[in-house]
Amino acid sequence: MIELNYELTDKDLFNFNLEALTIKQVVLNSQKLNIIIFCIFSFMCATIFTNSLMGGLYLLHWFTYISFIISFIIALLFFAIIGILGQIIFGGLTIKLQMKGLDRSTKAIIDENTITNENSMGKVIHNWSTTKGIYNKKHNILIFIGPIQAIVIPKRIFNSKEEIDEFWTYIQTCYNNAKNNH
What we know:
By secondary structure, the protein is α+β, with helices and mostly antiparallel strands. The protein is built from four helices and seven strands.
């Protein structure tokens, strides 16, 4: 059993946000709604552009369809770029605002079967068998307990790279044992 006591900082949350964008499961699950919104806005922009270009005439003309498709693709790319930049720039700020005023002290107890996460919002016990993934990133070790929810363990709380490596090996063993047994 390993017990860790630490406080999450703004920098930890910002790093988590950046690192999470490199994890496939997070990107897929957090972007589904964004894709729908981008498509709706792109469709509206393409419709407005095509109608203004054609002046409302020749609705069945081939040029109308081509200009609509090109407008739709351009608008979709524009909104996707804006969305990605917004996620990078404002994602950490969103997490920071959600945690504003909360005590960021965290206690993580990890054993062979469970991960216990205790903070100012309460205490939750997760089984390794239901864990979605573990990741060893540049600044954090992430234990995903849901599609986009993670227990963030900053590497700065360890005294050496050896301690980080030992901890990572331990949670890999716990995770792999649980996945192999279920």
